[in-house]
Amino acid sequence: MKLPKNLVQKLENRRLNNSLRQLPSFNNLVDFSSNDYIGFSKSELIFKISHHYLIENEIIQNGATGSRLISGNHSLYQITEAFIAQFHEAESALIFNSGYDANVGFFSAVPQRNDIILYDELSHASIRDGILMSNAKSYKFNHNDFEDLERLILKFPDTNIYIVTETVFSMDGDSPNLEELVELSEKYNCYLVVDEAHTLGVFGEKGEGLTQYLKLHNRIFARIMTFGKGLGCHGAAVLGSIDLRDYLVNFARSFIYTTGLSPHSVSTVFTAYQQLNIEKETIEKLRQNIIFFNQQKNLLGLKPMFVRSKSAIQSAIVPGNENVKKLAQQLQDKGYDVKPILSPTVPEGQERLRFCIHSYNSEEEINQVLQLLSGFIF
Fold first, then answer.
1. pLDDT tens per residue across span 140-198
2. Angle of CA points 62, 64, 70, to nearest 5°
3. How distant is the alpha carbon of residue 124 from its chain centre?
4. More exposed terminus of the chain, fewer Cβ within 10 Å: N or C?
């Protein structure tokens, strides 16, 4: 059966705009595109330990068999959630199947009809989708602009207000001033919710995330930790009070109405978290690579085209889908996997090359890819 004409037209419009998405093929290029910041997805040690744990505990099961509220709440969930809560110094942790599920589940369930959600305009699509499903009214504030945020807060006195941001933004790699944001949320008794997807495994002595590294975590209503980036596996957890956990178990539809993660997936999460405690050298190597990347881009005169970032995400603005795709292809042809980020994923005119830095990138690779970029640009 043919696709409806209106859908065919939407695909054609993407082709005409040079923004049609296609699944990439696997390649052996030098990795500057994945979110595997400290190499955990490639860790043979994590693979072997998590597998051995299952065998040793006689957990020979391929799937969860059902939702966690029916038959899928296998014993590994309780063990892993308790470890995660302790690791992050939180009252509780509730595992969701993905970061997308966690954000959709949280924001569709927690803010209520008469509540207000104020979210950073660059918040991730999963946050926005959850907000769209909520009965609360929502308003965006200018990116990392707390004067604009305070202006909005003052419009809604005597109202439950949820402030939403990310500790590292996925397309820009920058961070808000979290100390100032926490103080603002406390000043007006707001509920602060932060997505830490791109800080787990990156910030802190043991990769615990940015809010915990800054010792602000106990002043935040909810933290959402995603495992598919720095942890190198799959799933996510919402950290917060025990009451928040109980509420999500009862009302978060993306938690209630889906099959749980397999024991193997949860075992991998558990093992990866344990490994963070002993991978301090790997995390430090990532930090040094981020510093080296920033130093080299400055030496080569590339700083003006990059968004300011101290994270593992470094974005060079190259306006125009055609322009940024061409530049990315030139780098890929030279052996470096750097991906173009196109509109409408980012606003038109803000298209970019997104460099992801890893602990396993060498200084030679970093220097060479930036030398190539400089040669193609200037």
1. 999 999 999 999 999 999 999 999 999 999 999 999 999 999 999 999 999 999 999 99
2. 155
3. 8
4. N
Residue with tokens 């598919």: 228
Instruction: Return the number of other C-beta atoms located less than 10 Å from residue 101's C-beta.
Output: 20
Closest Cα partner for 77 from 323, 200, 213, 259? 259
Residue of 332, 371, 378, 328 lying closest to 351 (CA atoms)? 328
Residue with tokens 């595109």: 33
**What token pair was written down for 53?**
């744990």
Neighbours of 60 (CB within 10 A): 8
pLDDT value at residue 330: 97
Q: What is the pLDDT of residue 118?
A: 98
Phi-psi region of 18 (alpha: psi -120 to 50; beta: other; left: phi over 0): left
* The amino acid at 17: N
What backbone phi and psi angles, to 5 degrees, belong to 192? -90, 130
Pairing state between β 336-337 and 313-317: unpaired
pLDDT at 18: 84
Position 168: which residue type?
V
pLDDT at residue 378 is higher than 80:
no
Q: Which one, of 214, 239, 211, lies nearest residue 225 by Cα?
A: 239
Residues 6+ apart with CB under 8 A from 246: none
pLDDT at 195: 98
Please give the structure tokens belonging to residue 335.
């052996």
Choose among 367, 373, 359, 366: nearest CA to 316. Answer: 373
Q: Is the pTM of this model over 0.70?
A: yes
Structure tokens at 86: 């302790």
